[in-house]
Amino acid sequence: MIALLKGELEHKTPNLVVLDVNGVGYRVFIPLSTFYKLPKEKEKVCLEVYTYVREDCISLFGFLTKEERVLFEHLISVTKIGPKLALNILSGISSSDLKTAIAASDIVTLSGIPGIGRKTAERLVYELREKIQVMPIERHKAESSAAELTNQILDDVISALTNLGYSKIEAEKAAKDAFSNCGKRGESASVETVLKESLKMLGKWK
């Protein structure tokens, strides 16, 4: 099983990367939380990898941190949660907030993650609460302010949303509304926070 890949970032999109390892290109699926922190294309990167094997396919899932890989493994152990939904969960909420919500049995927060309903949120709590409670919970500060990067943030969020299949009109409206909501709440806007807010809004519009 492949557990780690280190090589040159040949190509990246919000949901997958192609990693060149000694001339061999590996297609690796990633959550948005990993995409945010990837270096530029053609630069070196190291990914923690989970190898998912089925009778009809072998898929690789990559993460920049061991913490996210472990969380991914916990998530796919939950009844009716496969790799795709597990990536959606990690894309819709930070690792620390996810662990906090599960440990606190916060069904409301978990149900607000795109693709997660109340029943799935309840299963997450029931099946993972004890495992999550033994994992450390860390908080991370936002890295940039809205005033400095407003236009770049909106461009990056719109690009990410269109790559995920949303129309440009949907993406632009969601990004602008999400950016505005962050400001109203007094939050420091970043690509990560605005994209997460946009995905929540788009999930409610569907």
Describe this structure in words.
By secondary structure, the chain is an alpha+beta fold. The chain folds into three domains: 4-63, Nucleic acid-binding proteins (OB fold (Dihydrolipoamide Acetyltransferase, E2P)), CATH 2.40.50; 66-133, 5' to 3' exonuclease, C-terminal subdomain (DNA polymerase, domain 1), CATH 1.10.150; 146-205, Helicase, Ruva Protein, domain 3. The protein has helices at residues 32-37, 66-76, 83-92, 95-103, 107-111, 118-133, 146-163, 168-184, 191-205, and strands spanning 4-12, 16-21, 24-29, 44-53, 58-63. Strands 1-2-3-5-4 form a five-stranded mixed beta barrel. Helix 7 packs across helix 9 (191-205) and helix 8 (168-184) packs across helix 9 (191-205). The relative contact order is 0.11.
Strand content: 15-25%
The total count of helices amounts to: 9
CATH superfamily caption of the largest domain = 5' to 3' exonuclease, C-terminal subdomain
CATH class of the largest domain, please?
Answer: Mainly Alpha
N- and C-termini, Cα separation: 38 Å
Question: Any idea what the radius of gyration is?
Answer: 17 Å
Structural category:
alpha+beta
Categorize the overall geometry.
Answer: globular
Say what the CATH topology of the largest domain is. Answer: DNA polymerase, domain 1
Helix proportion: 40-55%
Strand order of the largest sheet: 1-2-3-5-4
